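ugh ok fine here u go
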Amino acid sequence: MRHLLSPLDFSVEEVDQLLNLAGDIEKNPKKYAHLCDGKKIATLFYEPSTRTRLSFEAAMLNLGGSVIGFSSAQSSSASKGESGADTIRMVSCYADICAMRHFKEGAPMVASMHSSIPVINAGDGGHQHPTQTMADLMTIRSLQGHLGNMTIGLCGDLKFGRTVHSLIKALTRYENVTFILISPPELRVPSYIREEVLNGHSYREVISLEEVISELDILYMTRVQKERFFNEEDYIRMKDCYILDMRKMRMAKETMYVLHPLPRVNEISVEVDSDPRAAYFKQVQYAVYVRMALILTLLDLVPEEFR
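structure:
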């Protein structure tokens, strides 16, 4: 039995296989419509989610399976004091696989130690979000034709953004990737990312998006959250630097694509949505295919040609 807790739990070769499988699912959905007949996924979401929870549920339904679970800690026995270990032991009696989102970093790892079914980390605090990373990788590969040999700008909340942390970890395994980290000083990537993950890789940290947007092949936007600043003056001073609009887009390459894990608030102007380089809604669709491929992989139901 295998779990997915970190984007590094799969080797580069296994990620390639997973993305190839997801690509085939995109092209031939009917071929996969009944591979999970009789199987159940439990979606254990201890904090709010729209895209990730519905994406997992759509993925299992598309495969012919069914869904059980809860959408908040308050609607589960956690509100009565039940431990995560007891919850996963109980859920293991009901489902074949589970996706867990939790506000505590490391909670899915703890659950995996007590589970008799595969556990997928659907986001744990500010730590990891490996399935979003798989969707990001599929989006980049589909648009650029490859992973590696690119300059990626990650913009906004790089301190608390788990999607950013996971994506950086995944992309450091590919050749010739340059990272440009664009954030206010208050929201720089954590020191462990710089010292343990980016050490030995090409990266630099800047404050201004406009200063570097012309260099980028991929721009990965995230929200800048007002509550993360120490004072309102700093927020007011910085917030407009991280709003992507058509004026900034005109400074970018025609081949630069914009990704965003969503939800967005105001950091991407709606006028950008009609630009062919806006790829964030493609990410949403790719995420379903990737999660379908992951469910099949962890349940050992992958068609023979993708093994």
